Amino acid sequence: MKIIAMIPARYSASRFPGKLMKDLGGKPVILKTYEAALQTNLFDDVFIVTDSDVIFKTIESAGGKAIMSKKEHECGSDRIAEAVENIDVDVVVNVQGDEPFIDAVSLSKLIDVFKKDTNKEVDLASLKVQITNKEDIENPNNVKVITDVNNMAIYFSRSVIPYHRDKNINVKYYKHKGVYAFRKQALIDFYNTPMTPLEAAEKIEAIRYQEIGKKIKMVETDVEAVGIDTPEDLEKAIQFLK
Prior knowledge:
The structure is a single chain. The chain contains nine helices and eleven strands. The chain has helices spanning 29-39, 53-61, 76-84, 104-116, 134-138, 184-191, 197-202, 205-211, 231-241; strands at 3-9, 23-24, 27-28, 45-50, 66-68, 91-94, 124-131, 144-147, 153-157, 173-183, 216-220. The strands form three sheets. A seven-stranded mixed sheet has the order 5-4-1-6-10-7-11, with helices on both faces. A two-stranded antiparallel sheet has the order 2-3. A two-stranded antiparallel sheet has the order 8-9.
């Protein structure tokens, strides 16, 4: 089974433009992430896929592998799908470009899903983390996920799911972490399907996979990633590195 990591890297992030090129311990954030992905030794190959000449040249000049997007893309899945279309690969892992402190244990669990799935019943694997704080549960920026007894995703939503009507029943809430591992065909099918109605309503790309019949296995983790979404996050990351 050939397994590669793809790291989507847009230059113009809305909340923190150019964040992937900000300095983190003497290197740009995106290069730190690339090197961290290599150091996990989980992948047969690691690629940056980007819309930016600056990021492309930064990775190539450091001896890394970068792919230039040919089109504009709405989401990471589209960017990755275009890049892997002509690559011989079985499983593609989407590593977040703004999370340089990679959680290798969780990524390993995602890969294990496919190693154990001998009947090829799972199309994607993704991560969930339990949340207990009321504000986190009600925050629409946190995508929630509910699963069946086999940890297959039933639905993703920005709303509170499940709705806790009977207070005598113990309910757990899980936040979806946007880290995915895909079979190549699932990515290609996603790429060749226009945005679906529920995906458009919720603005959650995982829903398109469900609307076209793909099966998503959720893996629980207790690791909250150190992501860089704001200048304050970058300062925290610098301190974390120290």
